[in-house]
Amino acid sequence: EGAETSVPAQVLVKVSDLRGRAQIIEMRELRSGGDDPSTALLDYVGTVEITPPDTLRFDVGVTREDGGTSTMQFTREFHPR
Questions:
Q1: 7-17 pLDDT, tens per residue?
Q2: β-strand partners of 71
Q3: Which of 9, 49, 64, 79 is buried deepest, with most CB atoms within 10 A?
């Protein structure tokens, strides 16, 4: 039916810059939408230190409660304002 379901997970994020410096981003879970777990939304957020301009590569690993895993990689450019 296309319904969305929030599933708790362990999210591990490693970020590296073009010089090869790497850091692990500590992720934390945020719940919104009420106390009912069937309707609450889950987000995982973290912060990373940068000095713009910089290009960062993010490697994300997700392990769901049922043991299933997913990975993704993406890059992001940061520019001074």
A1: 889 999 999 99
A2: 61
A3: 9
Length of the chain: 81
Q: Are 78 and 50 in contact (CB under 8 A)?
A: yes
Check pLDDT > 90 for residue 56: yes
Q: Residue 62 above 90 pLDDT? A: yes
pLDDT band at 75; cut points 50, 70, 90: very high
CB-based contact 64:7 (threshold 8 Å): yes
Distances (CA, A) of 14 to 36, 47, 55, 58, 81: 32, 11, 14, 6, 25
Q: Is 52 helix (H, G, I), strand (E, B) or coil?
A: coil
